[in-house]
Write a structure and sequence with these properties.
The complex is a heterodimer of chains A (181) and B (461). Helices cover 49% and strands 15% of the residues of chain A. Chain A has 181 residues and is an alpha/beta fold. Chain B is built from 15 helices and 18 strands. In chain B, helix 8 (241-253) links the parallel strand 12 (227-233) and strand 13 (257-265). The model of chain B has no long low-confidence stretch (mean pLDDT 97). Classes of the chains: A alpha/beta (181), B alpha/beta (461). Chain A binds chain B through residues 8-11, 14-16, 19-20, 55-61, 64-65, 81-82, 107-113, 137-140, 155, and chain B through 20, 24-26, 29, 77, 131, 133, 159-161, 167-171, 174-175, 178, 205, 207-208, 211, 234-235, 240, 242, 264-268, 270-271, 274, 301-303, 305, 311, 372-376, 418.
Chain lengths: 181, 461
């Protein structure tokens, strides 16, 4: 999986190849997991991520790359697509008992909807159930702090690293965790 | 015979059904790879020649791009159908595009013309802090700082962070109001710059159709007889109704349309060669489906989200040459930099992509996007002046000469593309009283222009 990430970064393979690798990873896990102990399977299944491009924004390439790389790195992905209402992130996260909500944004006038996701979680009293991470071309690292998100990553591999940090030792870290600056 | 918009809409209702995941990750990549292989173009990228001069290569890419357009079609997300076009429909779409366009009023007006590789006619310079989120207090000064330079032909606005202190939220009445506000502020900026009839482009800060409906063709908004309407489709070759709504609205207003797309090397079309053939195919498809006056084509590199590295320059140049040698369509490029204002790197990046687009036959270049628009207010007038000067100074330059300049520039910044300097914001690098650059920024500009002149680039008077 690390090889896939490195090759993608160096443009030796491309997004469709990463998606194929992720599909292969899923297929392998479906065979492996039932045969493993809880400890062993926990190491392979790193967590559930609900991901999408925020409302008003129909650009999904960055989100698709991150989703594919997370899947290839052992995360279970629930991809909501693009132009996603903030409420949907919360509903889906509750439905699948996600660990992480990952929100992408390319266009500035959509950035405020990221804050709505965090506010909705807080107002429902379930903020501490999820790590919320943000990224995308329109999103400066400072924005993660402003909206009280848990993390920000600059590039695709940063998003994977960020998720790993949060699921492994997120509770004890000061937020937001910024990766890639 | 050329299709009408209603014909295209009918196609979105009747084409073969397809799931978006199949379109994105199977159909587009496999058809692209097959087309490259069939035409022997799958391994022709040469990092040592960022601006090739091979007409045969360009024509081979054109042929492959046309075949890809024919076999691929577009994808309508709302109906989940593939929109296919016949060879005759694609050819009619290209043939019916204009080869010149008058825009703006009186002495401030401009004529955009189609161009060829190595063309002696100067490319049109449409400048902006494109896609940059800007505070209300700096919006007019920043636009004025760009428009004050006479070398700039057309002005585009930027994106409001707030209007009257209220956050502008996409696809809400806030965005409708912001669309009109953009027109009012941009026109005030060109008035203050002493160029009230300047040609415009808008609504630039509209993430959805709401902003365009609010600002284009409405009383006090962007006038259709001097403003190109922006209609950009998402990757890969998608034709959403939200974009076709913009097309319909611009048609209703009688305004010229910019169809456009951005492709990423590393994404759906894959390699630099894949992105080049994909960009050609999508341009052909947009000509048939969106009936535009100009077509924007930008190839980014997904590994750093800009277009000033070798692979993006090569793919951009090859695709530009293929189109400008084989059609009369007015193409436009976008400069997409990753470094910020008041840095050497921003000007090197700007010079490289501006030269690549200009000598490869683009009709218009839209600049600039400092720091990939990641940091609010990180744009200024000077990089736009520089961009326009490089564009004008390259008129008549041979591709081979531009290639040598770009090869000399690239080593100065390419190792920093993934970790570029952030630079300074508009108020930090601009004297807000005069709207001129601060001394530090001016000195960087002067030094790098001297370097470029030593390399053989003409500096416009």
């Amino acid at each position: 999986m690390e090889v896939v990430g490195e090759k993608f970064k160096n443009l030796e393979i491309f997004l469709p190849d990463v998606v194929l690798a992720a599909d292969a990873m899923y297929a392998a896990l479906s065979v492996l997991l039932p045969r493993l102990t809880a400890d062993e399977s926990g190491k392979l299944r790193r967590g559930k991520v609900v991901i999408g491009t925020i409302f008003g924004d129909i650009h999904d390439i960055g989100k698709n790359i991150v989703a594919a790389m997370l899947a290839a790195n052992g995360y279970e992905i629930y991809d909501l697509g693009c132009d996603v209402d903030p409420k949907r992130f919360v509903e889906k996260a509750e439905e699948v008992k996600a660990d992480i909500i990952a929100i992408s944004c390319l266009l500035s006038p959509s950035i405020y909807y990221m804050e709505d996701v965090v506010k909705r979680l807080r107002d429902l009293g379930i903020r501490d159930r999820y790590y919320v991470i943000v990224g995308g071309a329109a999103v400066p690292p400072e924005w993660a702090g402003e909206i009280k998100a848990d993390g920000w990553g600059k590039y695709v591999e940063d998003a994977v690293q960020l998720c790993n940090i949060l699921v492994e030792k997120g509770k004890g870290l000061e937020k937001p965790v910024i990766v890639g600056v | 015979m050329e299709l009408t918009l209603l014909d295209v809409l009918e196609k979105t209702q009747e084409g073969p059904i397809c799931k978006v995941k199949d379109w994105d990750f199977k159909i587009v990549p496999s058809k692209t790879a097959l087309m490259l292989k069939e035409h022997g173009l799958d391994k022709v990228y040469d990092p040592n020649t960022p601006i090739p001069s091979d007409d045969g290569l360009a024509d081979d890419f054109w042929e492959a791009g046309f075949r890809l357009a024919l076999e691929l079609g577009m994808f309508c997300p709302e109906t989940e159908r593939i929109v296919r076009f016949s060879e005759e429909e694609l050819k009619a779409g290209l043939e019916n595009r204009p080869c010149e366009l008058d825009l703006g009023y009186g002495k401030d007006g401009v004529k955009i013309v189609t161009r060829r590789p190595d063309d002696e006619r100067p490319i049109t310079a449409a400048m902006s802090a494109l896609g940059l989120a800007v505070s209300e207090e700096y919006y007019i000064p920043l636009c004025q700082a760009i428009a004050q330079y006479k070398v700039v032909d057309i002005l585009l606005g930027c994106t409001f962070i707030t209007i009257d202190g209220h956050k502008v939220r996409a696809r809400t009445p806030y965005e409708v109001l912001a669309g009109k506000r953009e027109a009012v502020y941009v026109k005030e900026a060109v008035r203050r710059a002493g160029r009230p009839g300047m040609a415009l482009w808008g609504v630039e800060g509209a993430p959805t159709e709401y902003g365009q409906l609010g600002g284009y063709g409405v009383p006090g908004g962007f006038e259709p007889d001097r403003t190109i309407a922006i209609c950009l489709i998402p990757e890969p070759a998608k034709l959403p109704y939200s974009i076709l709504t913009r097309v319909a609205h611009a048609m209703n207003c009688g305004g010229p349309i910019e169809a456009g797309h951005m492709l990423n090397i590393g994404a759906y079309f894959g390699s630099p060669e894949g992105a080049a053939v994909g960009a050609i195919a999508v341009q052909i498809l947009e000509a048939a489906s969106m009936l535009p006056s100009v077509i924007e084509s930008t190839i980014l590199d997904a590994s750093y989200s800009g277009n000033c590295g070798r692979a993006a320059l090569w793919a951009t140049s090859v695709a530009d040459q293929a189109r400008s040698r084989n059609t009369h369509v007015m193409d436009l490029g976008i400069t997409s930099q990753v470094s910020g204002p008041c840095t050497d790197m921003l000007l090197y990046e700007t010079a490289a992509i501006s030269l690549a687009d200009a000598v490869s036959g683009m009709a218009v270049e839209i600049g600039t996007r400092p720091a990939a628009c990641r940091y609010p207010n990180y744009g200024s007038g000077l990089e736009n002046k520089f961009c326009a000067e490089v564009l004008k100074g390259s008129a008549g330059m041979k591709r081979s000469d531009a290639n040598e300049i770009v090869k000399a520039i690239l080593p100065k910044y390419e190792d920093k593309l993934r970790n570029p300097p952030r630079g300074k914001s508009f108020p930090e690098c601009t004297d807000l009283r005069t709207l001129k650059p601060i001394k530090e920024w001016q000195e960087i500009y002067d030094r790098i222009w001297r370097e470029l002149e030593d390399m053989g680039l003409n500096r416009p008077p």
